[in-house]
Amino acid sequence: MSFKRKAVAVVGATASGKSAVVHQVARMLSPNVEVICVDAMTVYRGMDIGTAKPTPEEQAEVRYHLIDVVDPSEEFTVAEFQKRAREATDEIWNRGHAVLYVGGTGLYGRAVIDDFELPGQFPEVRTELEEEAVQNLPKLFEELRGQDPTAASKMEVTNARRIVRALEVVRGSGRPFSSFGEGMMEYGTSRVHQIGMFSDGPSSQASIAIRFDQWLAGGLLDEVRALAAHPAGLSRTARQAVGYKELLAHVQGEKPLAECVQDALDHSRQLARRQRAWFRRDPRIEWVNSHGGAVERIIELLQSDLSIVRD
Question: What is the value of pTM for the model shown?
Fold first, then answer.
């Protein structure tokens, strides 16, 4: 059976069990199935424990892609991720294998699954805007509201990073920021069949707490210390990783450990709620309630024409 041009995406909130499901399927069908991690943080080297990155033993069993791509001191954009995911997908298909996409980073997933057109980067424009934002952020917000009211309506007047990014695109490309990735809240015909791992609030909270305890026991705090000591430091994107940014406050002497751990748990639960809301809006996702049911359904899809990716 040929697996070429076949793919299935497995999505869900953090701690929903999606990674374990995907690893089991890929191992059962090895070497005909390879995994692309759709995650904003597993791309960073040295950020292993708190990103639930596949272990060296798991990577020996299954071929994984888009992990350990850049150093934590580097910025890594959704556009760069999309480019590398496309390249990895083509390489896998050229080997006659199928792709399993797995992750909870919704925007990254849509960029790959729906092949969005993404705005470019305009560094010189961004530098100018960052300087202007320090002096008069409300003025920039008013400019954005005049140039792209749709984008402005979706952000706070105090969110300098988002305002600067939107205006960077407006000034640099001459197009409204909101015109890229059109239909973010609209869902057309699926290119890739998506399986969603269901998780409710109470079970998610319990899973998050158990997993974080395991991470701490496994050396997460030492990992954060090593990252903080990195000569080049942490990039803006890398230091946003939930679990890392909270423990970093302890490492830097800003808060006691117990308070930082509680912050990490609270933020992880908030992240899970946002992820559940994001994925539930997509009517194309086929939801499953159990690990075994998900494994069975994914294998069924990969062995049928339903997993052939549409152009």
Answer: 0.86
